[in-house]
Amino acid sequence: MRPDISVVLCSLNGAEGVDRCLTALAAQTARPAQITVVDDGSTDSTGDVARAHGVGLVRHPVNRGVAAARNSGIAASTGSIIAFVDDDCEPHPTWLAGIAQVWSEVDDDVVGVGGRVRPTGEPGYLLGFHRRHNPLEPLDEALALGDGFAHRLRLYAQRQWRRAEPTELRRVFSLVGANMSFRADAVAAVHGFDEAFRFGGEEVDLCMRLRAAGGRIAVSEHPVVDHRFVTELHDVLRRSRAYGWGSARMFDKWRSGLPTVFPGPVLLLAAVAVAARRGIPAAAACALLVPQLLHPRGVRDAVETGALESLADPYVRVAQETAENVGLLSGLWRAWVTGRPI
């Protein structure tokens, strides 16, 4: 029997995206039990857009963060499954039917199911970059096998050389907030999202607690949403820094293993410093070569597809990792030195 699914859409000043998303939800081949928009303290017309579409609306008088918004959506939902989508996403017409199909087939110990997030936006280099290096991929289940430095470094190195092959249904460590769904009773049993996570990391934290309670998390290729990226470099780095803040929150809460620090920027800085002793040309050559060695997929993609723009990918990847390291360190400084919440 297919489950009844409630859909939750959270937004902060995203009226235009809410309109696009609700239009896409209205075109679904399967009908949800309900749709709830959570307006998390917006100052634009988000609430008016939700009312115009005739869906449920919960409004926070002030911005409380994405975890609190998701919890308000959960409280307003009646379905046995609660599906989440973001205001910068547009579900494909079969998205809801795909979620329902997966839930009707998985074992009872599966408590979370996600789908594929496809980057969209203005055509150009950065859209191609996001499609080659999608930041909205579910975290691999291999992360659960260990939290030591050697294990993390091996997984990091493997990701530089090979892409994850799409499969019908696979187990994962955690889901992506833009396309995820959970059993309502399982989420209630772990008391929902941790509202200390105002942005970034809240879905990873929830999945970790669900896994600790004995549940399994899975992802399918069939429930697909398009995620609209701002294809500008400053937004790419802003998003990466926000991921670093999320990592700081995770580490500050769990204090297990090591925080997620990317070694590439540190290695690049050390190599350039050593090469600089031989002069500026040596340092410049090192700065050009080392990113290609750290992220060899750029060369491989250029050879396999003929798209020479892939050769620029390693430099953007190093910039992303640097921004994420900065976000992590600034978040930990805020929590551990100033004593303020991250």
Automatic annotation (TrEMBL):
Listed pathway(s): Cell wall biogenesis; cell wall polysaccharide biosynthesis
Record InterPro entries: Glyco_trans_2-like, Nucleotide-diphossugar_trans
Protein keywords? Glycosyltransferase, Transferase
Tell me which domain of life the UniProt entry assigns to the organism this sequence originates from. Bacteria
Give one GO molecular function term. glycosyltransferase activity
Q: Where is the Glycosyltransferase 2-like domain?
A: 6-126, 169-260
The entry's family comment says: Belongs to the glycosyltransferase 2 family.
Name of the protein described by the UniProt record: GT2 family glycosyltransferase
Q: Which organism is it from?
A: Actinokineospora auranticolor
Q: What is the lineage of its organism?
A: Bacteria, Bacillati, Actinomycetota, Actinomycetes, Pseudonocardiales
